[in-house]
Design brief:
- The complex is a heterodimer of chains A (181) and B (379).
- Chain A has six helices and six strands.
- With 181 residues, chain A is an alpha/beta fold.
- In chain A, a hairpin with an 8-residue loop joins strand 2 and strand 3.
- With 379 residues, chain B is an alpha/beta fold.
- Chain B has a seven-stranded mixed beta sheet with strand order 3-2-4-5-7-6-12, sandwiched between helices. Chain B has a six-stranded mixed beta sheet with strand order 9-11-10-13-14-15, with helices on both faces. In chain B, strands 1-8 form a two-stranded antiparallel sheet.
- In chain B, helix 12 links the parallel strand 14 and strand 15.
- The chains are: A alpha/beta (181), B alpha/beta (379).
- The interface between A and B is medium-sized, with 22 and 23 residues.
Chain lengths: 181, 379
């Protein structure tokens, strides 16, 4: 049985696919079976991208897209609208500086907002929000422990250099703790 | 060792363990990362006795592999869609020349209109080409199928194509129990063809065959393809003993109503069958076609529900045509649902809806399921 279904929304270049993949690895390390995959549109930087993550206690057999996610994670504030809450059963985790405005844009009550762009610009010096949103998702859901996530993120970015890896770990930790409150 | 990897890597890593001598491919979505992974392994010196050759087109890639395979090299390529059909002129020659090239086709729709997304129209078009076709359900199966495909190809002397769904499998990131070199070495001996192209003993491959002898070549090819079923079963059995039993040419679970499909749709199909208390049949080997096995499995059931992802325009779903033929003279009702063309999602609900149409007597001989309302322009 798939226990958690997550849908990620963002734009090409923000690391939407990577966000789902990092959580797939981290949840696997926690003993879950995982499946993540993207829904590609035209593969252009800036174009809307959707990716999916299924976390389960046993092997995942069904490979259909997620139409009724438990969580919707939105990496780009401008994408917040009715589309990102379509079929949503649980919480919206949104990148937006204002919780009220995020709710206003989507009409979704169960929303958590985090200013992931600010965290990314501060630490990474780039508006790439995937690791911040991964941190926020984990901080809010507690499906993955912070240490497991930090380790996974470090390993993921290690090939891009120690500095990049360290900074992304820092982003994850900051976002995790901010959402945790 | 279980590791979370993407479908591309599950393929490339397994190809590496099979120690190919020549790899040649031309990039096309959603195949590209398979050859990228292999190119990286090659650049890192991880592929011994191997030449990675870049080509200017799929046509050239297949041509290079025909030459390489004829000299006795173990060869690999990956492609799909327009790339596969551009290769087809050459691959059909490879089948006639009996060259055991292993191909991974990352199933993608055909143009036009252009679609990078998944259906089975590309490989189904090569149904009658003399290429062995095996469809896999998930990335663990494709990972383990590659050594088996080499053994099948090299013991039958037919090109062998593993069909894995583009995006659904290629881009999926999931835990894979990775093979080790020792297991593959123990299973797959080096390729030593009985005859090969050599300057010491010159031979002609793919020669001219006038009417007095052409037909015998084709008869022999057909007979060998039929016999290949036994060899494929032997290979599957051997693999089952050393590694994991994936079943034979088909995987079958009994039921009054049986769902039939192939490729990555099988996972969802099994879930639906389980929830609704139905049987299912997964077609693993599509060519050679497991006619007897399918007939035996399905002949006594009431309803056969086929989920097709390729169309024979002007007739019906491609897999359905074969299933109906296998059941000729038997009494099950065969219903065909054409779904998931060009990446249209096939959620459980769509499959359940198809089944309830069948069970309530509302199903037709075949229909397109999951269509949106649109205005048809008639010519």
């Amino acid at each position: 049985m798939v226990i958690i279904k997550v849908r990620f929304h963002g734009r090409g270049g923000q690391g939407v696919v990577t966000a789902a993949d990092i959580l797939a690895v981290a949840a696997f390390k926690e003993g879950y079976w995982t499946l993540s995959f993207p829904m590609f549109g035209a593969e252009k930087r800036g174009g809307p991208v959707v990716s999916y993550l299924k976390i389960s206690e046993e092997k995942v057999y069904d490979r259909d897209e997620i139409h009724d996610p438990d969580y919707s994670v939105v990496l780009d504030p401008m994408l917040l609208g009715r589309d990102v809450v379509l079929g949503l059963k649980g919480w919206l985790i949104a990148n937006h500086p204002s919780l009220e405005k995020a709710k206003e844009r989507t009409g979704w009550r169960d929303t958590v907002a985090i200013d992931a762009t600010k965290i990314a610009l501060e630490i990474l010096k780039r508006p790439i929000t995937n690791t911040a949103m991964v941190g926020a998702f984990a901080g809010f859901t507690k499906i993955v422990k912070l240490n497991t996530l930090k380790e996974t993120v470090y390993e993921w970015f290690e090939k891009k250099g120690e500095e990049v890896a360290k900074r992304n770990v820092e982003v994850v930790e900051k976002a995790y703790k901010e959402v945790e409150g | 060792m279980r590791k979370v990897v993407r479908g591309f890597y599950a393929v490339a890593y397994s190809v590496k363990l099979c120690k190919p001598n020549v790899i040649c491919a031309y990039p096309i979505t959603p195949q590209t990362e398979i050859s990228e992974n292999l190119a990286e392994m090659y650049a890192n010196g991880e592929l011994e006795n191997c030449k990675y050759i870049t080509a200017e087109s799929e046509f050239e890639a297949a041509s290079i592999l025909v030459g390489a395979s004829a000299t006795g090299a173990r060869t690999f390529t990956a492609t799909c869609s327009q790339g596969l059909i551009l290769m087809s002129e050459v691959l059909i020659n490879a089948a006639g020349m009996r060259l055991p090239i292993v191909i991974v086709n990352t199933n993608r729709a055909l143009s036009a209109p252009l679609s990078i997304w998944n259906d089975l129209q590309d490989s189904m078009l090569l149904r009658d080409s003399g290429i062995i076709q095996i469809y896999v359900e998930d990335n663990q199966e494709v990972h383990e199928m590659i050594p088996q495909a080499y053994k099948i190809a090299e013991s039958t002397m037919f090109p062998t194509m593993i069909c894995m769904d583009g995006f659904k499998l290629t881009h999926a990131y999931e835990p894979i129990d990775l093979l080790d070199q020792e297991t593959v070495d123990g299973f797959l001996p080096p390729y030593e063809p009985p005859i090969k192209l050599s300057i010491d003993e010159p031979l002609t491959f793919g020669a001219y065959a006038p009417p007095h002898c052409y037909m015998e070549f084709r008869y022999k090819m057909h007979k060998d393809m039929l016999n290949a079923k036994n060899k494929i079963e032997d290979v599957f059995k051997e693999w089952g003993e050393i590694r994991r039993d994936w079943g034979g040419l088909i995987e079958f679970k009994e039921g009054k109503t049986v769902l039939v499909s192939l490729g990555s749709l099988v996972g969802t199909m099994k879930e639906v069958a389980k929830e609704m208390g139905l049987g299912y049949l997964k077609v693993r080997t599509y060519r050679p076609f497991p006619y007897d096995e399918i007939r035996e499995a399905l002949k006594d059931c009431d309803n056969v529900v086929v989920f097709d992802r390729a169309v024979s325009f002007g007739y019906e779903g491609v897999l359905t045509i074969d299933i109906r033929n296998a059941l000729y003279g038997e009494s099950p009702n065969v219903y065909s649902f054409i779904v998931g063309l060009g990446g249209r999602d096939v959620p459980k609900e769509v499959m359940e809806d198809c089944v309830s149409k069948v069970l309530s007597g509302r199903a037709e001989r075949y229909r397109f399921e999951g269509l949106k309302d649109f205005e048809e322009v008639t010519y």
